């Protein structure tokens, strides 16, 4: 489609009811040379399909953006047109400084932690400042000895922990590019010192605190096919036809199609067969009204999660990246408190505790508040988990305090229940891994929770969520999105070696599929939304991003290498957040947040 | 020394729009951080810095895209871009591989640049370029995510290109209706242009038809130091020493730049005489320091009796096609469009 000019504007031909094209923002300053007399449209990534409500917000954002250069935006860079000359100057300045500094390039490449490269101006500024200050000698890097992943998941039963810790301290000065799953806590220290020293000149551009405008939630539909669809096409066709029939309430047709899916699935191999089977089951449940599934015993769902944890890197990545952000936020604090909205079996915390134990200068006092749903058998499941962590804490000599909180919903929490201590004495992190989306099943719940989080006044809020929109208003869209998403997820499991782990992981994911497809209303809790949508929500709730940097990226990448059949896993940086995906399809996203008022205070 | 660097920076600023200068200089700077003197590459930092975009089965500006793992064993992925054909809805697994409806539609297999080491099929700059190609040429574009140096040296990139070509040529849904054949063109910039040549050669030798080659600022070289290399060294974003680093990273250990991969018409090259090589469109930027090699390549094709069209853009620098706000962009796009449309009725 050719257009006469190359500014952002909507596609006037898009009639689909579920999408209204984003209106074009006020046009930014024209290109600096005479425009070509051509008919080539500037392609816009943001020009996705959004609901009218969201496009309004997008409009505001575009204006608030203060005229980002459109052509650079399209290729992934955020530079204000009005800043272009200044950015050019910084490029020259940095080039010169790199030429003059002894080992400048090596320093910037190996020691410096980079953040949010889309913001070229800030990225350059940080490097320029880094070159001014001679790098401090590398601090000892805390290393966690945990190559054998099967021991780390049950790591709260400390067996040889103390001897392990001793050895790894000795190893701390070794090659810092070890591929162990560990938290290199203080790699970013050089940046912090610099940033603090030049806080005045830097305050609007300090790397941690630059508020980014709320992002639009453009509904892109990423698709990765692992095998050509030519073989499985009938199966997919039937699945979609069945979903369509359900959507139109043609239940007898839907029923017939579900049976057909069963036949067709049998002749498939690999991921497609399993995905089809789970989706068919979910469709059948929807047709026959067999939802919700009988609630399962928590020890069974715990077990499923543990297998999922072992088979593929998603949970480990989530824990790792969240912990990295928490560790950095807790730097210099003597008493720290983590409030975990997603306690489960507490698998995230041994690694953090071990990293805190190895902090130069000694560990802080560590308090953990674990929040979870009531156990079906009324067992004090949360307390058991806490007790195991306490045992670990003792062996690694970390002062530890624990409180378990049973709540049906996070929205039942109030800040007053959490026994918070004054923020001068205790720094708080709030952590949520695959929990927040469940709140979207009830109106007002997520807003309530975010306002409680604000009251907690945390140093940092770490959030990991599925990177998908499974919460759109239309069933058919939800079905299609989730079919794509879980197909990719299941594909990524195909390479795993341990077949029992794989099956359990598939069951674990199958439950999510069932919920997305068969349930409605308050029962439908797997209401996944995209990073863009969460950004908007957090922005509106008074939070600004805390960026995850190249150090976390690198170590997350190393973590992936530990997974057999893991060639396809990819870490991606996205405007200060990190995403893990299979090939080019991001599947989960980690973001970190702080209270908006904090942005005035430089670290 | 600092002063002449300053002069160099100023010169390049005069020939490109400011935002393009910023874009290319930013790449230059980032790339400087990634190449290590010992020949290794800071891949983690490279992936962290690279701006990527996912595929999008919802059409945007008349184009939708999706990724396919073309070969599982090597995780070879390609991104397919298709024109929307007025349907205006997001594609799903069902209709993503629906047969093309045109009597004749070019399928352009695209190899992104990056001197064999940088970028990917999902890099934003290349995703954008491929989308533009679809719109301008009304073609399907298949962008190949070939393995990169230094982790994967010659001939990995060429092997991946050949694998992708075979995959494309066997897709029934890409066949033009007129003759039930896939009308394949190979295109690429920088290292991608180099890959085009070698994959075309392999195709011809194996009897797979390629209808044309499009080489945008292709990467060729040789041991000799040419006049343009000396004259333009460091002046327009590129230094010879950088070029040398990339060849050392790509070529087999111990080989020099007269290796056939780098210098196909050099002392170790094989003749193309009498071979039904595809017609070639070669775009040379007048401010690219490797232009002597690119011109020599064009000449070599001519001497071997091949069909060559040379487009020499005097004031163009490397990367001019990454943004549309310059006259060279439209000139080149027009040429490419007619190059791939010549067999349309």
Number of helices of chain B: 10
Describe the sheet with the most strands of chain B.
8 strands, mixed
CATH level-four homologous superfamily name of one domain in chain A: Vaccinia Virus protein VP39
Helix/strand-derived category of chain A reads alpha/beta
Number of H- or I-type helical stretches of chain A: 21
Tally the beta strands of chain B: 8
Oligomer: heterodimer
Low-confidence stretches of chain A: 1-64, 140-217
Estimate percent helicity of chain A: 40-55%
Q: Taking Cα atoms only, what radius of gyration of chain B do you get, to the nearest Å?
A: 19 Å
Q: What best-fitting shape of chain A do the alpha-carbon axes yield?
A: globular
User: What is the count of structural domains of chain B?
Assistant: 1
Residues in β-strands, percent of chain B: 15-25%
The general outline of chain B is: globular
Quote the CATH topology of chain B.
Rossmann fold
Number of beta-strand segments of chain A = 12
């Amino acid at each position: 489609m050719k257009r006469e000019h190359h500014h952002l504007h909507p596609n006037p031909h898009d009639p689909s009811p579920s999408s209204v094209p984003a209106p074009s923002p006020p046009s930014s300053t024209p290109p600096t040379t005479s425009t070509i007399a051509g008919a080539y449209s500037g392609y816009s990534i943001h020009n996705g399909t959004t609901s009218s409500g969201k496009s309004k917000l997008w409009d505001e954002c575009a204006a608030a953006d203060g005229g980002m250069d459109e052509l650079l935006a399209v290729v992934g860079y955020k530079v204000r047109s009005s800043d272009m000359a200044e950015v050019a100057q910084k490029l020259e300045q940095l080039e010169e400084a790199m030429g003059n500094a002894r080992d400048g390039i090596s320093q910037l490449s190996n020691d410096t932690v980079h953040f949010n490269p889309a913001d070229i101006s800030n990225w350059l500024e940080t490097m320029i400042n880094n070159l001014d200050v001679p790098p401090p000698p590398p601090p000892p890097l805390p290393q966690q000895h945990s190559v054998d992943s099967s021991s780390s998941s049950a790591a709260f039963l400390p067996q040889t922990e103390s001897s392990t810790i001793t050895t790894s301290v000795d190893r701390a000065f070794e090659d810092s590019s070890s591929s162990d799953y560990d938290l290199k806590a203080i790699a970013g220290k050089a940046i912090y010192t610099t940033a603090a020293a030049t806080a005045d000149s830097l305050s609007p551009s300090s790397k941690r605190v630059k508020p980014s405008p709320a992002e639009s939630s453009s509904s892109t539909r990423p698709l990765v096919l692992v095998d050509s669809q030519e073989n499985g096409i009938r199966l997919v066709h039937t699945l979609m036809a069945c979903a369509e029939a359900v959507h139109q309430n043609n239940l007898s047709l839907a029923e017939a199609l579900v049976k057909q899916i069963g036949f067709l699935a049998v002749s498939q191999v690999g991921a497609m067969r399993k995905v089809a089977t789970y989706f068919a089951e979910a469709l059948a449940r929807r047709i026959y009204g067999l939802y919700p599934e009988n609630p399962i015993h928590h020890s069974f769902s715990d077990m499923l999660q543990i297998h999922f944890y072992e088979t593929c890197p998603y949970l480990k990545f989530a824990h790792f990246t969240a912990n990295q952000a928490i560790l950095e936020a807790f730097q210099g604090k003597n008493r720290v408190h983590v409030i975990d909205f997603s306690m489960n079996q507490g698998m995230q915390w041994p690694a953090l505790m071990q990293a805190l134990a190895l902090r130069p200068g000694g560990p802080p006092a560590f308090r953990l508040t674990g929040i979870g749903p009531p156990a079906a058998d009324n067992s004090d499941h949360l307390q058991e988990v806490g007790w195991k962590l306490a045992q670990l804490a003792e062996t690694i000599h970390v002062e530890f305090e624990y409180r378990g909180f049973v709540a049906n919903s996070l929205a039942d929490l109030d800040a007053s229940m959490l026994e918070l201590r004054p923020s001068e004495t205790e720094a708080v992190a709030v952590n949520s891994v695959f929990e927040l989306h469940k709140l979207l099943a009830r109106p007002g719940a997520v807003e309530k929770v975010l306002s409680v989080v604000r009251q907690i006044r945390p140093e940092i809020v770490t959030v990991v969520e599925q990177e998908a929109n499974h919460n759109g208003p239309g069933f058919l869209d939800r079905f299609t999105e989730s079919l794509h998403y879980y197909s990719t997820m299941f594909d990524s499991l195909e390479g795993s070696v341990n077949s029992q782990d794989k099956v359990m992981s598939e069951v674990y994911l199958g439950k999510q599929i069932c919920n997305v497809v068969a349930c409605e209303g308050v029962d439908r809790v797997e209401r996944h939304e995209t990073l863009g949508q969460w950004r908007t929500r957090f922005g509106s709730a008074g939070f600004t991003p805390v960026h995850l940097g190249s150090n976390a990226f690198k170590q997350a990448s190393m973590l992936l290498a530990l997974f057999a059949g893991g060639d396809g896993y990819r870490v991606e940086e996205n405007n200060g957040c990190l995403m893990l995906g299979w090939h080019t399809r991001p599947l989960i996203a980690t973001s970190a947040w702080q209270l908006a008022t904090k942005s005035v205070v430089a670290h | 020394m600092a002063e002449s660097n300053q002069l160099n920076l100023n010169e390049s600023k005069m020939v490109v729009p400011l935002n393009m200068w910023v874009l290319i200089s930013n790449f230059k700077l980032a790339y400087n951080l990634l190449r290590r003197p010992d020949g290794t590459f800071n891949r983690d930092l490279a992936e962290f810095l690279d701006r990527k975009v996912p595929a999008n089965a919802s059409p945007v500006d008349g184009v939708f895209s999706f990724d396919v793992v073309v070969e599982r064993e090597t995780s070879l992925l390609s991104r397919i871009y298709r024109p929307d054909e007025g349907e205006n809805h997001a594609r799903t697994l069902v209709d993503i591989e629906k047969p093309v409806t045109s009597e004749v539609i070019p399928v352009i297999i695209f190899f992104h640049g990056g001197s064999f080491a940088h970028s990917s099929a999902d890099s934003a700059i290349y995703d954008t370029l491929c989308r533009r190609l679809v719109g301008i040429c009304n073609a399907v574009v298949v962008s190949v995510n070939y393995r990169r140096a230094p982790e994967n040296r010659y001939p990995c990139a060429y092997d991946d290109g050949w694998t992708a070509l075979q995959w494309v040529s066997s897709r029934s849904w890409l066949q033009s209706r007129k003759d039930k054949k896939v009308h394949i063109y190979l295109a690429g910039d920088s290292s991608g242009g180099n890959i085009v040549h070698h994959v075309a050669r392999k195709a011809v030798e194996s009897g797979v038809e390629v209808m044309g080659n499009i080489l945008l600022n292709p990467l060729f070289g040789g041991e000799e130091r040419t006049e343009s290399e000396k004259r333009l060294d460091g002046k327009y974003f590129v230094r010879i020493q950088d070029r040398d680093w990339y060849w050392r990273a790509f070529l087999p250990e111990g080989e020099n730049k007269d290796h056939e991969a780098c210098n196909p018409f050099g002392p170790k090259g094989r003749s193309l005489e009498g071979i039904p090589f595809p017609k070639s469109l070669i775009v040379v930027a007048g401010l690219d320091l490797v232009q002597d090699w690119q011109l020599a390549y064009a000449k070599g094709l001519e001497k071997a009796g091949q069909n060559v069209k040379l487009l020499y853009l005097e004031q163009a620098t490397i990367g001019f096609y990454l943004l549309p706000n310059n006259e060279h962009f439209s000139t080149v796009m027009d040429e490419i469009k007619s190059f791939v449309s010549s067999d349309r009725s």
